[in-house]
TrEMBL record:
Membrane topology: Multi-pass membrane protein
Gene Ontology CC, one term: plasma membrane
Magnesium keyword on record: no
Pfam families listed in its UniProt record: GntP_permease
The keyword Transmembrane helix belongs to this UniProt entry's keyword annotation: yes
Transmembrane portions of the chain: 21-39, 45-63, 75-96, 116-142, 154-174, 194-213, 245-264, 276-297, 318-336, 356-389, 396-413, 433-457
Name this protein carries in UniProt: Gluconate transporter
Family note: Belongs to the GntP permease family.
Keyword entries, A-Z: Cell membrane, Membrane, Transmembrane, Transmembrane helix, Transport
Superkingdom of the source species: Bacteria
Main location: membrane
């Protein structure tokens, strides 16, 4: 590896790395990361640091700038996710240990039956995922998935993947999530129409990538993290159904209210500021945890010492996940600072392709290269936005969805979602590729097909 890095730096000294060499470096780094984690058994966080620094050297980033890129990527990623994931883990642990997840699972299974539990969870995740950011939705839904897995002896991947496919669709396709919302503004699209089209395109994508795909993945072995494995609690000690659903879904309720406020509230500026503050995801999770501490903790005869122990255990169990996510952010930042995404996109401009497909393709390639769906979507939007000005026949609402679908393509080792799923479900790298990466790709491809079909009729 050292000879390879030396060669690259000699060749690229004082000149930008060309497109072909950039792709070679990305391929080399991804292969190196996979080998370090799966073959050499290196801690994934350390592997990310090694690969990030190697990528910086290979891509010609000055030596005095590489550490800054690594630190910025790690800090920016954890800065936006650490509070949400930690508070979500605490809430999830409490929902699991208090029996609330057990109660919710019993109510859902009683209502739909074990035969249709997948559809119940998909519907719940789709509704929850519209106002909820992906990270919150993931850590909030995991205890429910695992509770059903343990109680009814169902395969974790078989139960979990359909729910997570619904969360992915809402994250990539639907406002008010960051990337779709930004694309709506950039393309001067209509948010209501985009949301409607997104639902039309998203439902088939969820069905194919969720319940249909999971039928082929029942045999994937998975022993999810023990921190979310709730002990079977006697019926008389369980919280009631209303309390259980309220505590688990309070983040959804708060975000839903704050999202609807501009349409139902008055125009007083101070009220908008208050609602915006309360609706910020970390504040939402903090409020939800405080309420759950009382309703599922103190009200259930748990003292603060017991609750503190539950929360400490939750943080211990997700500490490595946080570091891995931070490491993936460092890798992404190095590639971004090296200008890799811009080089790839510029090379695609010369291709004479259908605009909606081109938008999807650019977003997909950047997603594969950098890992971040949001960065892929926004970068692709900046590239194709000029096309919409020159060609008014392109439907801006469908371009939002096309790029959103592309931004979900083939999540792999440079995506924090890949590692969240792998570590929470305790899967091997191979099985994570076979389930998570395939699911995300199916969502992306089916989403593109839906957009192209819809384009014929609107």
């Amino acid at each position: 590896m050292g000879v390879f890095i030396f060669y690259i730096n000699v060749v690229t000294l004082d000149e930008p790395v060309n497109n072909h060499l950039s792709m070679l470096v990305i391929f080399f780094c991804i292969v190196l990361l996979i080998l370090l984690v799966s073959w050499a058994k290196v801690n994934p966080f350390l592997a990310f640091l090694i690969v990030s620094i190697s990528a910086g050297l290979c891509l010609g980033i000055p030596l005095d700038k590489i550490n800054a890129s690594v630190q910025k990527g790690l800090g920016d990623t954890l800065g936006s996710l650490a509070i949400i994931i930690c508070l979500g883990a605490m809430l999830g642990k409490l929902v699991a240990t208090s029996g609330a997840a057990q109660k919710i699972a019993e109510v859902l299974v009683s209502a739909f039956g074990t035969k249709y539990i997948q559809l119940a969870l998909v519907a719940a995740a789709f509704v929850v995922g519209i106002p909820l950011f992906y990270g919150i939705g993931f850590v909030l839904m995991v205890p429910l998935i695992f509770s059903i897995t343990y109680k009814y002896k169902l395969p974790a991947v078989y139960i979990g993947l359909p729910m997570l496919s619904a969360l992915s669709v809402t994250h990539g396709f639907l406002p008010p999530h960051p990337s779709p919302s930004a694309l709506v503004v950039l393309f001067h699209a209509n948010m209501g129409v985009t949301l409607l089209y997104g639902v039309i395109v998203g439902i088939p994508a969820i069905i194919v990538a969720g319940p249909v795909l999971s039928q082929f993945l029942k045999n994937i072995p998975s022993e999810p993290l023990a921190t979310f494995r709730a002990e079977e609690i006697p019926q008389e000690k369980l919280p009631n159904a209303a309390n259980s659903f309220f505590a688990a879904l309070l983040p959804v309720i708060l975000l839903g209210i704050t999202a609807a406020f501009p349409f139902i509230g008055d125009n007083k500026d101070y009220l908008h500021k208050v609602v915006a503050f309360i609706g910020d995801p970390p504040i939402v999770m903090l409020i939800a945890l405080i309420v759950a501490t009382y309703t599922l903790g103190i009200k259930q005869k748990k003292n603060m010492g017991q609750l503190a122990g539950i929360y400490t255990d939750a943080i211990k169990d997700i500490s490595l996940i946080l570091l891995i996510i931070g490491g993936s952010g460092a890798f992404k930042q190095v590639l971004t600072d090296a200008g890799v995404s811009s080089q790839i996109a510029d090379g695609l401009k010369s291709f004479n392709l259908q605009p909606l497909f081109l938008g999807w393709l650019i977003a997909a390639i950047i997603r594969v290269s950098l890992g971040s769906a949001t960065v892929a979507g926004l970068t692709a939007a900046g590239i194709v936005s000029a096309m919409l000005v020159k060609d008014p026949s392109i439907n801006p609402n469908l371009m939002v969805l096309s790029i959103g679908a592309g931004s979900l393509a083939f999540s792999h080792v440079n995506d924090s979602g890949f590692w969240l799923y792998k570590e929470y479900f305790n899967l091997t790298i191979k099985d994570t590729f076979l389930s998570w990466s395939v699911m995300e790709t199916v969502v992306s491809v089916v989403g593109l097909v839906g957009v192209l079909i819809l384009n014929v009729f609107v």
